[in-house]
Design brief:
2 strands, mainly alpha, two-stranded antiparallel sheet, 314 residues, ABC transporter involved in vitamin B12 uptake, BtuC, single chain
Length: 314
Amino acid sequence: MVIPFVYESRSTLILLTQIFIFAIFAMSYDILLGFTGIVSFGHAMFFGIGAYTTGILLQRTEPTMGLFLLSIVVGIVISAVVSYIVGLMTLRLKSHFYAMLTLAFASLFQVASEKWRTLTFGNDGFTFRIPEVLIDRTTFYLICLVLMIIIYCVLQRFTHSPMGSVLLAIRENEQRAESLGYKVLHYKIMASIISGVTACLAGSLYTTSLRFVNTSVFTMDTTLDALLMTIIGGVGTLLGPVIGAGLIEIAHHWLSGLAEKYPIFERWIIFFGIIYILAVMFFPKGIVGSIQGWKAEKRVKRGANVKQEKKIAG
């Protein structure tokens, strides 16, 4: 099967599939950070729940497409329950207190996955088989692409709904939103559940693409990936995290490839950091956010010029 704009390269298919998966993960984080103003350091918790749920179910039984879909549903239910409980316990806290407590919960899940060796095989992790339908990289690529588009459209509709408007009000001024009669905690928990469920789906797809899972899915690095993708792409835009995921995954792939050929790039993570710094310097609102800002400034200037011309003509 020929895919438009994609050469028949296995590595290219894998890279694009990873971009789609992390775009879903980054969009889930943007619901918290960009639309509700919540900074979480434990978002990997939901990503890991999805990864381990799918991995365990497929590893313990005969892998079929029905079981794969069931594993996603089970992971989503677990993530929804966990995000509700964690949200109820932590979302009353403000700023860095909440962020640190979510990190503690993610660490708790990581420790549990390390110690419960009979189920998770500890730090070593485990491999598993996937349904025959998903073995073909092209099929899995298309599934991830379609899911990314669907998630984007659903979240776009959600953020433009009345509830999305309330979340934006909470982000801008939580006290004022509360004084207007909105149950701020209720809305925050709903945002947390939607974000957690979406991250869980990304985790299930991620572990399916690797056919392997270990405790790294619960680490702080996983959350930081989503955070940086969101910031570089543009906070509160949804399209921004998609672009951020693409740029970071491509940069990661390119620099790690150079490291294999040229010794100077062995410390490629340093160059990776320089890319982050340059992106923040030249696009302080993220790529999409900065472009939207520039367009808004042009519209304002154009409007001011039109008013001036009318004044002179009058």
